[in-house]
C-alpha cells in the first residue's frame, strides 16, 4: 500500500502535531450525540481511538558512482574524491584505481538531496576543467 510521506509522524516538534506527542487525540463523544442519550450509569463508557501505528521512516538512500573514461587525469579524480566526498588521500586513490580497473565505483551513499548536490559538484568541476568525467546516482 502507498502511504503519503508525512514528516509530522516522526517529528514530535513539528507544527502540525498537537497534544502530548502520542498521536491524534481521541474526541470524546458528546452525550447528546449518543443513541442511548449519554450518561455513564453502567460505568462502561469506551473511548474509541483511531488506529495509528507509530511509524519511523528511513530516508531513501542513493549510491553516488564515478564512471571510468580514458581521458580524465587520475590526479583530478583523486582530488575530486577528497574534496567532494571527504575521502583521505589513501581512500581516494584506492577508489580511483578501482574505477580505473572495473569501470565504475562507489564514492558514497547519501540521502537524495545530498547525493544530487555531490553529483552536480563533480559534473560542474569536471566540465569547468574540460574533463569528460561522469558521475551518477542510483537508488540503493
Ligand atoms: N582512466 C583514467 C586514466 O587512465 C583515470 C580515471 C579514473 C578516470 C577514474 C575516471 O572515474 C575515473 N587517466
Structure characterization notes:
Helix content is about 30%, strand content about 15%. The protein has helices at about 75-85, 90-100, 110-130; strands at about 60-65, 105-110, 135-140. It has about 140 residues and is α+β, with helices and mostly antiparallel strands. Strands 2-1-3 form a three-stranded antiparallel β-sheet. Helix 1 (about 75-85) crosses helix 2. The protein binds L-tyrosinamide. L-tyrosinamide binds near residues 67, 68, 69, 73 and 100. L-tyrosinamide binds next to strand 1, helix 1 and helix 2.
What compounds are bound to the protein? L-tyrosinamide
What's the order of the H and E elements? Answer: EHHEHE
Say how many strands there are. Answer: 3
Poorly predicted regions? 1-40
- Output mean pLDDT: 78
Residue share in helix? 25-40%
Distance between the termini: 20 Å
Structural class: alpha+beta
**Roughly how many Å is the radius of gyration?**
27 Å
Spell out the key features of this protein.
alpha+beta; 140 residues; disordered N terminus
Question: What is the topology?
Answer:
Elements (H helix, E strand, L loop, with lengths): L60 E7 L6 H10 L5 H14 L1 E8 H17 L5 E6 L1
Antiparallel strand pairs: 1-2, 1-3
In short:
By secondary structure, this protein is α+β, with helices and mostly antiparallel strands. 29% of the residues lie in helices and 15% in strands.
Amino acid at each position: 500500500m502507498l502511504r503519503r510521506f508525512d514528516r509530522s509522524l516522526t517529528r514530535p516538534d513539528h507544527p502540525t502535531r498537537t497534544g502530548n506527542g502520542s498521536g491524534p487525540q481521541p474526541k470524546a463523544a458528546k452525550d447528546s450525540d449518543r443513541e442511548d442519550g449519554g450518561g455513564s450509569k453502567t460505568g462502561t463508557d469506551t473511548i474509541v481511538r483511531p488506529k495509528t501505528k507509530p511509524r519511523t521512516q528511513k530516508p531513501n538512500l542513493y549510491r553516488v558512482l564515478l564512471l571510468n573514461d580514458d581521458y580524465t587525469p587520475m590526479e583530478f579524480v583523486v582530488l575530486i574524491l577528497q574534496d567532494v566526498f571527504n575521502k583521505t588521500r589513501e581512500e581516494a586513490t584506492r577508489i580511483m584505481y578501482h574505477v580505473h580497473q572495473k569501470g565504475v565505483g562507489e564514492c558514497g551513499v547519501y540521502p537524495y538531496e545530498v547525493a544530487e548536490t555531490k553529483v552536480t559538484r563533480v559534473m560542474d568541476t569536471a566540465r569547468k576543467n574540460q574533463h569528460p568525467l561522469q558521475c551518477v546516482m542510483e537508488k540503493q
